[in-house]
């Protein structure tokens, strides 16, 4: 397949372009029209299926050394675009060497297992998270339906930053968040269908969800304390303190760093569960020091050991309660595990990751609030910061 050769410089940007001509123009820039796209996409679909059909034969962990790629890459981007065939060949050569080789070896009925294994070790340069032999970190889901959805959303390329920027995008998200919320048996205040203040929104990561909730809680605390009559609380930012267990995901501490607030990691009990009493004691100590406790992140299923903080006890304490159920949250869909979520009615925000157990490609993190207005307000009172 050889494409015409148009470079960026050859396009006359001063030419008046009707908006309906934009897509063909972009296609000309990348040298691919719909006919070529059809062919390339079909080739790629075959490649994806072969990869998944043979993933079990690959070595999960590659044996390459840091900076191995630098030596094989040109120092800068090519001046002229390259045809798809050469880009496709680069996938084989640079990213996933050995897809075809592994297949050929299979076809030769794997004469000597040992030789093939050693050969593969040298080839691999990717950690195969979806291999059935991958047991590190946490699961990251992928599935053919999710890949199809990614293709469609890539093709539609809609930008959903507000309702009018693409109404179906916003409304489908609202519907899906309500469906998922109902499957998890979240209290109705978290759902749009209750027509209250609550609802859910898709984020890219649980880390981002915690950060957003901490910022919202910070905003609420700053508004409350800077309007208080006491002059010593006029600039509360450097007095705010957040809490989590020592078992919490590292993203909680990172969120505090980014929010410029203090964070205290508290010791859990022998079951690695953070208890209400421990939090209460820490809050009392900090208040005596003149600090302002404003946020606690409780985990339902820690990444390290799947431990559960005691949210029934923690929920009795009146500071923003964010529940991080990124890892184990999907389990609450099963009625026999739902009781682990008891106490969620006291939470301000709740998050779980469909991209871990629910066969949805990364990134997809689901975040619900009892009051979405606290997040919308974030934009308006940011000027209250020091
Ligand atoms: C995986 C995990 C996170 C981080 O998830 P990302 O979506 O990768 O940011 C946070 N908390 C817990 C408990 C997790 O298991």
Topology readout:
Blueprint: H1 22-29, H2 34-53, H3 84-95, H4 99-107, H5 113-123, H6 144-156, H7 167-183, E1 199-203, H8 206-226, E2 240-245, H9 250-259, E3 262-266, H10 276-288, E4 292-299, H11 311-314, E5 320-324, E6 349-352, H12 354-357, E7 365-369, H13 373-380
Parallel strand pairs: 2-3, 2-4, 4-5, 5-6
Antiparallel strand pairs: 1-7, 6-7
Helix pairs in contact: 8-9, 8-13
The protein binds pyridoxal-5'-phosphate.
Q: Mind explaining what this structure looks like?
A:
27% of the residues are buried. The N terminus and C terminus are likely disordered. 39% of the residues lie in helices and 10% in strands. It is globular and about 70 Å long. Helix 9 links the parallel strand 2 and strand 3. It has 13 helices and 7 strands. The chain is α/β, with parallel strands linked by helices and 386 residues long. The protein has 2 domains: 129 residues, dopa decarboxylase, N-terminal domain, CATH 1.20.1340.10; 223 residues, Aspartate Aminotransferase, domain 2 (3-Layer(aba) Sandwich), CATH 3.40.640. Helix 8 packs across helix 9 and helix 8 crosses helix 13. Strands 1-7-6-5-4-2-3 form a 7-stranded mixed sheet, sandwiched between helices. Bound molecules: pyridoxal-5'-phosphate. Pyridoxal-5'-phosphate (PLP) binds next to helix 8.
């Amino acid at each position: 397949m050889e494409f015409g050769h148009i470079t960026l410089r050859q396009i006359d940007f001063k030419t008046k372009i009707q908006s309906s001509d934009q897509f063909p123009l972009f296609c000309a820039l990348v040298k691919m029209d719909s006919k070529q796209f059809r062919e390339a996409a079909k080739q790629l679909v075959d490649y994806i299926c072969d990869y998944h059909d043979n993933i079990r034969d690959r070595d999960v962990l590659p044996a390459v050394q840091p900076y191995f790629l630098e030596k094989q890459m040109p120092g800068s981007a090519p001046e002229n675009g390259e045809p798809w065939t050469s880009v496709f060949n680069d996938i084989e050569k640079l990213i996933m060497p050995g897809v075809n080789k592994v297949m050929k070896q299979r076809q030769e009925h794997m004469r000597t297992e040992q030789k093939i294994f050693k050969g593969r070790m040298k080839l691999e340069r990717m950690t195969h998270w979806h291999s059935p032999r991958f047991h590190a970190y946490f699961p990251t889901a992928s599935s053919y339906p999710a890949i199809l959805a990614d293709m469609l959303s890539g093709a539609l390329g809609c930008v959903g930053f507000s309702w009018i920027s693409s109404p179906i995008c916003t409304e489908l998200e609202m519907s899906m968040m309500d469906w998922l919320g109902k499957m998890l048996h979240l209290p109705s205040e978290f759902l749009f269908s209750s027509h209250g203040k609550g609802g859910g929104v898709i984020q890219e990561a649980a880390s981002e969800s915690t950060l957003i909730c901490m910022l919202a809680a910070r905003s609420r605390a700053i508004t409350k304390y800077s309007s208080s009559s006491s002059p010593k609380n006029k600039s509360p930012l450097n007095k705010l303190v957040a809490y989590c267990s020592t078992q919490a995901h590292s993203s909680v501490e990172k969120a505090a760093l980014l929010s410029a607030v203090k964070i205290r990691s508290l010791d859990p009990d022998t079951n690695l569960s953070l208890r209400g009493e421990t939090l209460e004691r820490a809050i009392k100590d900090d208040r005596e020091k003149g600090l302002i406790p404003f946020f606690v992140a409780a985990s339902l299923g820690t990444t390290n050991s799947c431990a559960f903080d005691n949210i029934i006890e923690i929920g009795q304490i009146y500071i923003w309660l964010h529940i991080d159920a990124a890892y184990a949250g999907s389990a609450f869909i099963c009625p026999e595990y739902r009781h682990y979520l008891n106490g969620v009615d006291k939470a301000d925000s709740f998050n779980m990751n469909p991209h871990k157990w629910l066969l949805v490609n990364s990134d997809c993190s689901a975040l619900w609030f009892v009051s979405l207005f606290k997040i919308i307000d974030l934009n308006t009172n940011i000027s209250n910061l020091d």
